[in-house]
Design brief:
- This protein has 254 residues and is mainly α.
- The longest helix is centred in the C-terminal third of the chain and has 21 residues.
- The two termini are 24 Å apart.
Amino acid sequence: MTSNRQAEANTATRSPHRTGPWDAAVGTLHEWDPTWARACVKMTTGPWAHEVMPRKLVELVSVALNAACTNLNPDGTRRHIRAALEAGATRDEILTVLKMASVMSIHSCSLGAPILLEEAKVAGVSSSKMQATATPACDKMKTVRQWNSAWDPFLELAPAWTDEFMATGAGIYGSGTFSPKDIELLSIAFDASYTHMYAPGTRRHIKGALKAGATMEEIMEVLKLCVVQGVQACNLGVPILADELERRRIGAEP
């Protein structure tokens, strides 16, 4: 590596806030393709540099994107948990994000249950186990106007289980750990993530964020962080490529 490229790599690993989503792979990337690396690092570290949102929230959104059940990236999750703690996040705040990252899996039912009801009707099939069941958690959510009509199909199909799920979810979103605005911004990240792209939830939470006082710039910053998450392809692949090139080089030596 030349001294100039070494300097570029060193600069890339310093700021802003130690290059946001990047790990040590960015140094190798600067060695191999400095022009593209400079452009990509500038674009992807923007949310850390421009301070549209507090750094702590930027890191918590990044924890959400990495830990989401649709992603499960251990290196990125650790990187951003460490950075969130450095930025002042508490254990309970990070734990709440991880809980949210777990229950977003309900979208499997949001997608599948309506299709099941439609196809069962076409096939002339009905459930033999449907019966009246007490659903206090669901009833409470309806009373406080927190019920989402997208949940009706799986409430119909599995009322007892749906009530158990809602009791789990309500404990997270009603804990008061985050402001309503921050809850909505985190929820946008989960739903708009390129590993999920759940359009109904993205719209619902953008609407909720605007109602809670979020600016368009803040919401756009969350969407940028979803795009920034794409550099995990380089964080994963560049070290593997470097290792394999070195293995071939050693193997080719006499």
